[in-house]
Amino acid sequence: MEGRYAQLVQRLNEVQDISGAVGILAWDQRTKMPEGGSGARADQLSTLVRLSFERFTADEIGVLLDELRDWGESLDYDSDEASLLRITRRDYEKARRVPLDLRAEMARTAAIAEPVWREARRKSDFELFRPYLERAVELKKQYIECFQPVDEPYDALLDDYEPGMKTAEVRAVFDELKAGLVPLVAEIAERADAVDDSSLTGEFPLAGQEKLEGEILRAFGFLESEWRLDETVHPFASRGGPHDVRLTTNHHADNLTSLFACMHEFGHGLYEFQVDHALYRTPLGRGASLGVHESQSRMWENMIGRSRPFWEHYFDTARNAFPGRFDGLDAEGFYRAANRVRPSLIRIHADECTYNLHIILRFELEQDLVSGRLAPADAREAWDAKVEEYLGIDVPDVADGVLQDMHWSGGSIGYFPTYALGNVISGQLWERIRRELPDLDEQTRAGEFGALREWLRENVHRHGRKYMPGELLERVVGGGLDPQPLLAYLREKFGAIYGL
Ligand code: ZN
């Protein structure tokens, strides 16, 4: 059987090499490519994506998986081989369920809808976008049909991003999160003046930003020989190979958002970097799910990068990077400014406390759209009502409401919950980490992150995709999704900052 297994791995290696090339072409497209390259790049990407899909869903892969089934089940569950067979079979069966025609139609519709969404947003014209939203929802319903029977329609969409997770479970977790967050945010909003963040806006010369980011990223674990940082519009992280991590950021001359984007993307990059190299070139050689991935980026951005001990160490570095800029401010003042909470309209600018409410409202609307309880034509009103209910603010312009994100134009329905799931998971991991690394604050205050990096490698990163996200969580924290650690962390942190 070992010979057949080696044949399967060899085929999977080829699929992963093609996907890796797609990743580098996409990275280039978003960082270096002149605009004129977009037509040729679209052709190259669609050919490679098709090739990797065809190779992965080929009958021969199914034959090998069938032959190896008993052998795989006789092996230790935690072994690389048993895990590879288990996860690959799941991926294979899912990929084979969706007809190529439907996949092509979804890709085509997404490509057409994106420029329309941009125009609709620019003109604040929901009606312009509405037919494309209707089409995206209709195609998603067809996609869901491929996976029947499902407990509820949304399960089929969620599973693409959080394998094995059920809508009912996420709904229960988000309901609990919402019940804790809505009153917390309302209480903070009444004391909005308690935090002044004016020190974080104004002029921040690029050279200073790069100096500060470089120093922090190197302390986190960024190695010049194996990592890159480049400029893009919407920051992301990707990986060209086990010793090739690509982070991106977007500098603005009048604020420090790039610094926090760098820390966020570092968390994604570190996860990929620390996956066991034996899993490279297989379907297991990346993070367990988008939610688990986001738990890593949020941890480095918020739980470390917006923490008091962190700024007790790095405030002097920030002051040196921008001479005279922070006169009259101290580390505590900087820490408070970096943690200002303010209910706002735009998700990507939302603070650590209100962010999850932006996600929960999208999750609720998406379920209603795909189940047919909400017509796309009514999405705007439904959106505005939830913003008022959860965040206590009006939506004066649809461009800052239902039209703000591009996800739905690309048919990415089922993706949003992973952002808040990441926060929930980061809360659970953080609680465990603080127990197991009792001197974490002292280390952070000294600019030392090796113990945290090693804990994450040992408990989360090295496993790659060997376990489903629920299994991984169970192994690390001994239970399922639980929003209470995140709520406790937020209440403690923001309760102290705002004197609640
Ligand atoms: Zn992220």
Bound molecules: zinc ion
Overall 3D geometry?
Answer: globular
Mean pLDDT: 96
Estimated helix fraction: 55-70%
**Order of strands side by side in the largest beta sheet?**
1-3-2
What is the name of the CATH topology of the largest domain? Answer: Neurolysin, domain 3
Straight-line distance between termini: 63 Å
* CATH arch. level architecture of the largest domain: Orthogonal Bundle
Number of helices: 20
How many beta strands in the DSSP annotation?
Answer: 3
Give the secondary structure arrangement, pairings included.
Elements: H1 2-31, H2 38-56, H3 59-74, H4 80-97, H5 100-123, H6 126-145, H7 153-158, H8 167-190, H9 206-220, E1 227-231, E2 237-241, E3 244-249, H10 257-273, H11 290-304, H12 308-321, H13 331-337, H14 355-371, H15 379-391, H16 417-436, H17 440-445, H18 450-459, H19 469-477, H20 484-498
Parallel strand pairs: 1-3
Antiparallel strand pairs: 2-3
Bound molecules: zinc ion.
